[in-house]
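Reopening this ticket.

The earlier resolution said the output was attached, but the attachment link was broken on my side. Pasting everything inline this time so it's all in one place.
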Amino acid sequence: MIIYLIFIIVGALLLAGALTSLKARLAFVKNGERALGTIVQLVERTDDEGTWYIPVFDIPGRQQETITYRHDATSSSFEWQLGEKAAFIFEPGKPDTVRFLSYWKIFGWSLSLLAVAVDLLLIGGGYFLLNGYWGA
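Inline output:
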């Protein structure tokens, strides 16, 4: 019985965190500046596992500044080509908030936390709601 109570408490905490994060992400998308970035360089990194390529983008801002963004993921093949474009979003005046404009990059963690929270709440709450029904 105590485990189901823990499920409810953890689920409620995760739900609160997920909703707070989701609200912040929605505000980010609503107020963010969108721009098309262009790959200007493919940085080559070699280690014991092989050669990896990291794309570097130049993203123009509205105030005539250019933001240089080095992608955090690497690839062992040429998935990107020089001159290729990608959509980005960032807070105006804050170049450190640059993110790819994709659903998963922006909302992924918030929605994952929300899914885990709902599962925990259903398991914990279901136990207490249906405990008398099965006569346990």
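Reporter confirms the inline version is readable. The mean pLDDT is 89. The CA atoms of residues 61 and 78 lie 27 Å apart.
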